[in-house]
Amino acid sequence: MSSAMIGQPALLTEIFRSDYRWLAERLRYRLGCRHNAEDVASESFLQLSTLAALESVRDSRAMLTTIANRVMYEGSRRKKLERAYLDALAAAPERVHPSPEEQHLLLEALIAIDKVLEGLSTKARHAFLLSQLDGLTYAQIASELGVSSSMVRQYMTKAMTQCYLVID
């Protein structure tokens, strides 16, 4: 085992002891809830622990702030997606409502798809979803988005490439 690997847990412990309370307080101020702040702080430290070169981090508080902002952003995106799903479910006839287990699996799948398509433009994501979920043709998607069919083809190529990159 390398000396860098031996020192990593000790360094993480040192950062945790010196910066956890600071981060949790800062987040409590921003989130208005001690419990949510501690959840985000804990998730931030968990993600910090996965960094391969933790010893190369010059300012642990800056790094923790960046990670915490990402954690909050992802939580916000997840809540928006969940709200949209629940709204769509509420609008559907009750006889087509999936079981709670199926609802959970569907929501997890939606979140995974959203994460895969994250780097695409809004129109490219919309085109992909219209194609895959609504079964629209490229010409129908082009009409819906106000673009050419060749542009829809480019959007779909980008979206499919993102999907394949995640599979590898």
Keywords:
single chain, 79% helix, disordered N terminus, 168 residues, 7 helices, extended, Arc Repressor Mutant, subunit A, 2 domains, mainly alpha
What percent of the residues sit in helical stretches (DSSP H or I)?
A: over 70%
Topology pattern, helix = H, strand = E: HHHHHHH
Q: Strand pairing plus helix content: what structural class?
A: mainly alpha
The total count of helices amounts to: 7
Shape: extended
The tally of beta strands, per DSSP, is 0
Distance between the termini: 29 Å
For the report, how would you describe the main beta sheet? Answer: none
Portion of residues in beta strands equals under 5%
Please tell me about this protein's structure.
There is one protein chain. With 168 residues, the chain is mostly helical. It has helices spanning 3-31, 34-49, 60-91, 100-116, 122-132, 138-145, 149-167. The chain starts with a helix and ends with a helix.
Topology of this protein?
Layout: H1 3-31, H2 34-49, H3 60-91, H4 100-116, H5 122-132, H6 138-145, H7 149-167
